[in-house]
Amino acid sequence: MSTAQSLDLVVKSETEDQAEPPAPTATPALDATIVEGPAALLSLTSDWQRLIDASPRGRIFQTPQHLAIWAEHFASDPKVGFKCVVVRRNGQVVLIWPLAFWKIGPLKLTQTAGAPVAQYEDILVEHKNEAASLFAPALAEMERAGIDLILMERVRADSALAAVLPPQTVALGEEDGAPFVDLSSGDVETALAGRKGKVKRHQKKRIVALAEEGELRLEVAPDGPTTRQWLREATEMKRAWLTEKGFLSRAFLDERTNQCLEAFAERHGGADVKTGMTAARLTVGGRPVATEIAYRLGGDYLLFLGAFAPEYGRFGPGNVLTEMVLRWCVQNGITRYDMLPPRYRNKHEWETGEVLVHDFGVPLSWRGGFYLRAVLGYGKPRLKRLYYALPLPLRSRLANLMLRL
């Protein structure tokens, strides 16, 4: 380059500098704080809802509506703390992580708030592609707070939380799945076109046989009090079935689960809710024979509990109700019928896809790592296998004693 050309560049540069100084390129500041849960629900309402609305799928259990009622029943325990990690970027809330804190001896643990009722866990961010950078200061805040172990249950593979798992994360148990029916086509026949002919014929036989017992009708609870009553009736049927089979449900080992569900149904139940709970039932000749209890968020219907009258079990009333509810969902703008984990044979009959889910533990200290591997990774699975190896009559008696439905 000639001296003249160099001089021209220098003069041009100086002229541009005088005309308009370059803008600073400082990295936006991220600040993480821990806020008391009830205070966060009140002070961050608009930010919380903004983050929910940005990506609502599977996040009903992290909504303010659900967590406020969960906190009344579970965080009122002095041994449990309900707090939120809030990350701000230049003052704006960009991440909310609601958490429950508790201790086992000297061990400090935390888990996404909502357990044991919540069926999915997640963090709230507006854009999933920046979740990792936003989660880093939140995790650092957990370390500063002296947390030994973070537990994460039923983390969806498509969630923001799954995208930010740190390197020391340990997978717990076996991978599971959440089957769903994609109703985005707006037509049930299109959605279920892939079902095998044998399955379709069997379903028709169920409907015909059940119709011989009386007129089949689908009823949807119109309001909160009715939703609560149908929920109560469904849990009674569910308890009878679990006891007979000797099955245990972790959520229903705690009587507060029932109280929490009923309170949510009372306040946020009905046929037209956008964020809440819906109860649907099949009646035969005016008698209820099968009931579904589902959470609702936007276009998602999340099947939480299904139950049927045992004397009608041979007719498969749950499957008949499923088909009727799918048609109701399409008529009411619902685009996904989420059957939630775990996988079951009766769910496979209907599913058009599934989302993988897994449990994880994130140790932040040697104590947390030891408890994770020795108790959760080794001891707990063996106790579960031991229980289900017991004779059915004994399991049935134990289930009757332990279930709190």
CATH superfamily of the largest domain: Gcn5-related N-acetyltransferase (GNAT)
β-strand number: 13
Secondary-structure content class: alpha+beta
Residue-averaged pLDDT, rounded?
A: 89
Shape: globular
Largest sheet geometry = 13 strands, mixed
What would CATH call the architecture of the largest domain?
3-Layer(aba) Sandwich
Total number of domains: 2
Low-confidence stretches: 1-26
Reading the helices and strands in chain order gives HEHHHEEEEHEEHHEHHEEEHEHEHH
Number of helices: 13
What is the fold-level CATH name, i.e. the topology of the largest domain?
Aminopeptidase
Beta content comes to 25-35%
In the CATH scheme, the class of the largest domain would be Alpha Beta
What would you report as the Rg, rounded to the nearest angstrom?
26 Å
The share of residues in helices is 40-55%
Distance between the termini: 84 Å
Task: Provide tags for this entry.
single chain, 405 residues, alpha+beta, Aminopeptidase, 2 domains, 13-stranded mixed beta sheet, 13 helices, 13 strands, globular, disordered N terminus
Describe the protein's topology.
Blueprint lengths: L2 H17 L10 E7 H7 L1 H10 L9 H12 L5 E9 L2 E13 L2 E6 L11 E2 L5 H14 L4 E8 L13 E13 L5 H4 L5 H15 L4 E5 L3 H22 L9 H14 L6 E10 L2 E11 L2 E9 L8 H15 L4 E3 L6 H4 L4 E11 L2 H23 L3 H11 L3
Keywords: Transferase
GO molecular function: transferase activity
InterPro entries: Acyl_CoA_acyltransferase, BioF2-like_GNAT_dom
